[in-house]
Specification:
Strands 5-4-3-8-7-6 form a six-stranded antiparallel β-sheet. The chain is globular, with a radius of gyration of 20 Å. Helix 1 crosses helix 2 (33-40), helix 1 packs across helix 3 and helix 2 packs across helix 3. It has 268 residues and is α+β, with helices and mostly antiparallel strands. Strand 3 and strand 4 (114-120) form a beta hairpin. The chain has two domains: 7-74, Arc Repressor Mutant, subunit A; 84-259, 2-Layer Sandwich (Beta-Lactamase). Helices cover 45% and strands 18% of the residues.
Length: 268
């Protein structure tokens, strides 16, 4: 539980309902009540009550005792993304960069220790699996994630990262929080981040911050490639100038939305 939330204000039933939806989202097939209860860390009876409630509300489907997320769940995330029309307005800039450099391009925000894609050109692919809007990746081993982590106050960074090693994704992943802190300090100085063999071996990525009118970093824009097509120098010399130019355009869109009264969240 977040330390700044009073226990009296914490709605445990709501938290368990959301935990149930998260557990179902992480399963690759419909599951029985016992498996779901284990994933949630609650008793089978508690999980059953939550599942039946969610089924009644239309968020869970059930067949022969096996439960799965119902299509209504999609409305929760998609409605949020659709309301954030800002990123839809930024999409043409993302597509222009991707077309210009012939590499995948995306805009991401920070969510805990992950980045979440809020805008992405989906026609190009460098990772093992295709990534779409709404997908997430570990922040510490992605170029966008490191840009976003570098903008956090030091105390907030420490709270999120903690003292233990971070998971390794590629051979270049930074798993030591102390080494990550040094890398983030350099990113703050140079204004961009690189990720080489960090998410997957063979992948390269470069990212720049996207700031609002108050110069707060609210998102990151990145381009990615593969060692078979590009070098780190290619990212710095050919892609970075294009990325920065497009970032200026997107920051203009962000400022315009702020002028119209929109609150541009910097992630959480």
């Amino acid at each position: 539980m977040d330390g700044d939330l009073d226990k009296r204000d914490f709605a445990q039933t709501l938290a368990r309902g959301l935990a149930c939806l998260e557990a179902l989202a992480g399963m690759d097939a419909p599951a029985g009540c016992s498996r779901i209860a284990t994933a949630m860390g609650v008793s089978r009876a508690a999980a059953r009550r939550i599942l039946l409630t969610l089924k009644h509300l239309g968020y869970v489907s059930e067949e022969r005792g096996l439960y799965a997320s119902a299509p209504k769940v999609l409305s929760l995330g998609r409605s949020m993304l659709s309301r954030t029309a800002l990123w839809s307005a930024a999409a043409p800039a993302v597509v222009r960069i991707a077309d210009h450099v012939n590499e995948p391009c995306s805009i991401s925000v920070l969510d805990g220790l992950d980045i979440v894609f809020v805008c992405r050109d989906a026609t190009r692919r460098i990772f093992t699996s295709r990534l779409e809007t709404g997908d997430r990746l570990p922040a510490h081993c992605s170029a966008s994630g490191k840009v976003l982590l570098s903008a956090l106050p030091e105390a907030e960074f420490d709270r999120r990262i903690g003292g233990g090693d971070l998971p390794r994704r590629g051979s270049g992943s930074i798993t030591d929080p102390r080494q990550l802190r040094k890398a983030l300090a350099q990113i703050r100085q140079i204004g961009f981040a690189l990720a080489v063999d960090e998410m997957e071996d063979g992948t390269l990525a470069i990212a720049v911050p996207l700031m609002d009118r108050d110069r707060r970093v609210v998102a990151a824009m990145s381009c990615a490639s593969h060692r078979s097509r590009a070098t780190v120098d290619d990212l710095r010399t050919a892609i970075l100038p294009v990325l920065r130019s497009a970032a200026d355009d997107v920051e203009g869109i962000i400022a315009d939305y702020q002028d119209r009264g929109w609150i541009v969240a910097a992630g959480r």
